[in-house]
Amino acid sequence: MAKRLIFLGPPGAGKGTQAQVLAENHQIPHVSTGDILRSAVAQQTRLGKQAKDYMDKGELVPDALILDLIQDRLSYEDTANGWILDGFPRNINQASFLEELLVKLNQSADCVLNLSVPDEVLVARLLARKRKDDNEETIRRRLEIYHQDTVPVINFYQQKKTLKTIDGNQTMEAVTKSLSEAIS
Hints:
CATH superfamily: P-loop containing nucleotide triphosphate hydrolases
CATH topology: Rossmann fold
Mean pLDDT: 91
Strand content: 5-15%
């Protein structure tokens, strides 16, 4: 069973939910950049205040802020037996940084899982969540950024032959089953 997993996919694809299920099943930490950022914003840390300005506009938080958080989190003791990275890397620069960081930590990603869901399904799902930062304009902007920045990351891992794409437009149980089969 692969223990170091990278979850890719657009906002609203169900990465967080699925990563949590797999993390519990395999007793490894679910490292979500979204959770780390929301926590920093809620605690009004220096990083959180900086991040909030970007998040309120529907923009991605700059790499430098994210990279510091990830490096810090992957050095915790609970990551020794594996981890699931959710929402990172989001662009080629972050993917390259992650490769270097994993070498430094003497680790490697066992599998990169990509949840694929059509844009219109994502917009409907995200609007249904009713988060205050989720309106249709912001959601469409986030999807635009995703296609521009993250799709090249999918190609990057495809070339490394570590990518497995899963249809995220099925029931939650079916997606969980597909993911479990992909990593076993």
